[in-house]
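Example S7 (structure tokens).
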């Protein structure tokens, strides 16, 4: 990804500080303790029904695209399994899903990729796994 490229991340924290050194980052975050920089953070609460970020906040973030990369690293726990896939129908950039060593995160990633025509590769880490999802070039 080129310096100055645009990243959209769901969930933020210490890693965001490193991303901000090279790229333009938009973060959707529900926990104020993880706001790294108010200029790039879109505060969001979690939907009581789905457990995922409120749809209106996700739309605000997506409308700031196009993005070179999307990172799904939030919300924590079971809530990530409720990702609103239909909101991402207009993106085509690679998507990274963190924590796919947990079954609920791996299942969310697989459903996302299947629904949007992405292929995925799981990268095994020392303590946890992540997946890189790319558009299937044959579709």
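Recovered sequence:
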């Amino acid at each position: 990804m080129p310096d100055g490229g645009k990243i959209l991340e769901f969930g933020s924290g210490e890693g965001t500080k490193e991303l901000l050194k090279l790229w333009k980052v938009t973060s959707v975050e529900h926990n104020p303790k993880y706001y790294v920089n108010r200029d790039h953070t879109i505060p969001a609460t979690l939907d009581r029904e789905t457990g995922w970020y409120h749809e209106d906040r996700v739309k605000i973030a997506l409308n700031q695209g196009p993005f070179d990369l999307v990172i799904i690293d939030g919300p924590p726990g079971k809530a990530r399994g409720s990702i609103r896939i239909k909101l991402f129908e207009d993106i085509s950039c690679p998507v990274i899903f963190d924590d796919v060593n947990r079954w609920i995160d791996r299942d969310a990633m697989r459903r996302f990729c299947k629904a949007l025509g992405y292929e995925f590769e799981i990268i095994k880490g020392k303590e946890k796994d992540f997946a890189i999802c790319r558009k299937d070039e044959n579709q």
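Notes on this example. The first strand starts at residue 6 and ends at 10.
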